[in-house]
Specification:
By secondary structure, the chain is α/β, with parallel strands linked by helices. It is 34% helix and 19% strand. The protein is globular and about 80 Å long.
Length: 652
């Protein structure tokens, strides 16, 4: 059933910021017409005043506008005063945020010291023991009354001291009460926050920010959309803090963060950003800045044909229905096209960059789990036999001149070219189109042609929205050809190339739109992007969108003052031992706060439980407690063996 779009954003076709109320966090206001604010979180021991201050200064110099510091107990909360005083003495007045999970007394003290406190409804004043309880309405309301009594003192203190509050729901730490009634769902996340928010409103306290974090970008995006829809229905408009929790590190962490955060920013949603990487916090800040700055001037984009309703439910995942053409579309995983059209000469060794290695002794090709599915070579020639599983695409004129046209497939630059072509493949034809093509009379030429895969491109500044609009039109018209999403970027460094591609492709993929990706660097002066980098980025995006799994996934928390071991070192150690376990999800959590709940859907967990002590999980079940950290990685591998999932890595 169609879903009215404006319940969760201003427009699906014209960029504009979703207007929220203004919240003051010290002297740096958030929401309303203020710019998207950047924040991060310290990883030092909060009791180490100087270390925390110096790291905070590095974060501020990197562009951080708010600094979050963990306060797991009353001692850390009290030391926030010393940290704040030392920062002020050094000339830094950046607002501080106390991160609270379980301890009301720490929150109530911190609220008297810093500019903002963050509480997690699933942990604060609620219960999380992984129990399934059947509540009657009376029992459920009784629990809400208990929570109100425990939470209200903090609200009153915040109101008295002018302290802001973030009600930060995490997908993995929903309380047993919420889980029992709503399940592990975006709806449960939203209701968890709204329960606390209603208490605040009853007490006439409105200096509030909300977040809906998950390590799964698909769940995260759905939850924020649903939150806005629910707020709109209750006449609320609180500002939103965006983040993908436990995103990991390196390329994967950046791709996953850009996918989730960017998908919301594209629709004008979000007032502050925290990118959660398992790295030093000052490295998170430039990523967040790059994501936010992309939307300056976005309002001036070319016009996109407006729409009053969406043909799909934006609060759940359904893949667009397509028929299969030569292994593309239908129920198959999204495909990756590698673009070698700008190469003058293509050597068989070049294919190692996209996952194919030729062994001349056995005369066989070997392929990796991230081997590209299709190879576009434009007007070039192949002077060798390509791998059988790799489909080769030529420009139409070049393909027409081939002696053996079964060796490749034609690419038509427009519907008009396809219509007028005297030669077509009986198996597979690629036809490029854009928004104008979708609304032209020519569309009937290719509509539901069982040999045609559409290549959807855009040159619009607001390109994701334009491509989404094209998908919607195909759905309205019941046209079920598979669609490959194509994006090109010019004059862009490697970091932004990765972030923007993750946003643009990922925003569509997590909504079930797209049967493949085609990513190119269209700047001929820039020869820094190797084909391997582009190929790796495409597979990383598909993995983050949960639409194609090609490697091990690591759900690693970004570290903070609660962390009980070196997260970066341990994550790298575990990665080195397990990165060949395709499709396995391993969570690496610094403490019990980010433990079994935050691991959400991980298969295995490695959680700090004390100094030099690790607790190991299978799913959310504890398998071994308090393992010595020196042996914990070996023990983790042994558990994976016991569960029948371990395979030996291939010998190189």
């Amino acid at each position: 059933m169609p879903s009215t779009f404006n319940k969760y954003c201003n427009s699906l076709t014209h960029y504009s910021r979703y207007k929220t109320r203004e919240v003051f966090i010290g002297d740096v206001p958030l929401g309303a017409n203020n710019p998207i604010r950047i924040q991060s979180m310290t990883t030092t021991d909060t009791m180490n005043t100087i270390a925390t201050v110096e790291q905070s200064i590095r974060m501020i110099k990197a562009g951080c506008e708010y600094v979050r510091i963990t306060a797991p107990s009353i001692n850390e909360a009290e030391n926030l005063r010393n940290i704040k005083n030392e920062l002020h003495k050094r000339g830094y007045k950046t607002p501080l945020i106390a991160d609270i999970h379980f301890t009301p007394n720490a929150a109530e003290l911190a609220a008297r010291i810093v500019e903002k406190v963050r509480v997690n409804p699933g942990n604060y004043a609620d219960k999380k023991k992984f129990q399934v309880i059947e509540y009657t309405d009376a029992e459920y309301n009784s629990e809400l009354d208990r929570i109100r009594k425990k939470f209200s003192p903090l609200v009153k203190i915040c109101k008295e001291y002018g302290t802001a509050m973030r009600i930060g729901t995490n997908h993995g730490s929903l309380s047993d009460r919420i889980m029992s009634r709503y399940g592990d769902t975006p709806n449960g996340m939203v209701e968890s926050a709204l329960e606390f928010l209603r208490i605040c409103e009853d007490l006439n306290y409105h200096n509030i920010v909300l977040s809906m974090k998950s390590s799964n970008p698909q769940v995260m995006v759905q939850a924020y959309r649903l939150l806005i829809q629910r707020m709109e229905s209750e006449n609320m408009n609180y500002p939103l803090h965006l983040g993908v929790t436990e995103a990991g590190d390196g390329e994967d962490g950046r791709i996953k963060s850009a996918l989730g955060i960017g998908a919301l920013l594209e629709d004008g949603i979000g007032d502050t950003i925290r990118v959660s990487l398992t790295e030093e916090p000052e490295f998170e800040v430039p990523v967040a800045i790059s994501l936010a700055q992309r939307y300056k001037g976005r309002e001036s984009h070319s016009q996109i044909i407006s729409i009053d309703e969406s043909p799909k439910d934006p609060y759940s995942y359904q893949r667009r229905e397509t028929f299969e053409v030569a292994g593309i579309g239908g129920a198959t995983v999204p495909k990756v096209i590698s673009d070698f059209g700008d190469e003058k000469i293509i050597n068989y060794k070049d294919l190692t960059q996209i996952g194919y290695t030729y062994d001349p002794i056995t005369d066989k090709w070997n392929m990796t789990d991230q081997a590209s599915d299709l190879l576009f070579i434009g007007n070039n020639d192949l002077h060798f036999e390509s791998p059988t599983v790799l489909k080769v695409i030529y420009n139409y004129e070049k393909w027409s001149s081939l002696v053996d046209q079964t060796k490749g497939f034609p690419f038509y630059s427009s519907i008009e070219q396809y219509k007028s072509a005297g030669n077509k493949s009986f198996v597979l034809n690629f036809v490029e189109m854009n928004q104008r093509s979708v609304f032209s009379d020519q569309l009937s030429v290719i509509a539901n042609d069982q040999t045609v895969v559409l290549i959807l491109s855009t040159d619009n500044l607001h390109g994701m929205a334009e491509q989404r609009r094209a998908f919607f039109e195909l759905m309205f018209r019941n046209i079920k050809n598979p669609v490959i999403i194509k994006r090109s970027y010019e004059k862009m460094n490697e970091d932004n190339f990765r972030l923007y591609a993750s946003t643009d492709f990922g925003s569509l993929l997590i909504d079930g739109l797209g049967d493949g990706v085609w990513l190119t660097d269209n700047d001929q002066s820039n020869k820094n992007f190797e084909k391997g980098f582009t190929n790796r980025t495409c597979f990383g995006i598909l993995q983050a969108a949960r639409t194609r799994i090609s490697k091990t996934e690591y759900i690693a928390c970004p570290s903070c003052g609660r962390t009980l071991f070196d997260l970066v070192e341990v994550t790298n150690k575990i990665r080195k031992r397990t990165e060949h376990l395709k499709g396995v999800k391993i969570a690496i959590m610094g403490c019990i706060v980010n433990g079994p709940g935050e691991m959400a859907d991980a298969d295995f967990g490695y959680v700090g439980s004390g100094p030099n002590k690790i607790t190991l999980y299978h799913g959310k079940d504890i398998v071994r407690r308090n393992v010595n950290s020196d042996n914990a990685v070996d023990e983790l591998i042994e558990i994976i063996r016991e569960k029948g999932i371990w395979i030996e890595p291939a010998k190189i």
